[in-house]
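Work Package 3 (structural annotation) set out to generate three-dimensional models for the target panel prioritized at the project kickoff. During this period the team completed the workflow that converts sequence records into discrete structure tokens, so that structures can be stored uniformly alongside our sequence database. As a representative example, we reproduce one entry of 190 residues exactly as it appears in the project archive.
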Amino acid sequence: MKILVVDDGQLAINSLIRILCRVAPDCDYISAMTTEDALSWMRQGPMDAAFLNLEMPGMNGLALTRMIQKLQPRCNIIVVTEHPEYALEALQIFVSGFLLKPANEADVRNVLEHLRYPPENAPVGIKIQCFGNFEIFVGGRALAFKRSKSKELLAYLVDRNGATCTNGEMLAVLWEDKPDTASLHSISAI
């Protein structure tokens, strides 16, 4: 999950990011101290959530919220403020959460567990292990191959590091002890 923290005070940013790191350690955190920087981050790619301070110089956090909602309608906006009187207005523009400063760990955890737009459960990454046994891990689990030749072919292509190779080269690597025949080419359709 990718989270943007927006506040004009570096100490407030650091405090919230420390809490977020304890509550959701596998997330990526980005900070912005101005509304312009926040909008710039939002234009660069999808964010799953944004924690926004309402009292910002220039544009206030509610105006920033409306702009973010136009740029990224599925971004969860969590308002963070010292002013409880903003709660109704924040809820009227359909934010995902409202936190009073100073935020605590339990409240941050609760907000993240009840997001309006939960992040999709995409794999957390792909890892290719080349030393020892060749393995591909998706989301921390080893990928199972139906055919051992498929795994061998993938290992060969990883070893080639993006370089092109012909069908003949791949066949020679996979079936090195067999002559290059038409029947071998039909087997390669696996």
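The chain is about 40% helix and 20% strand.
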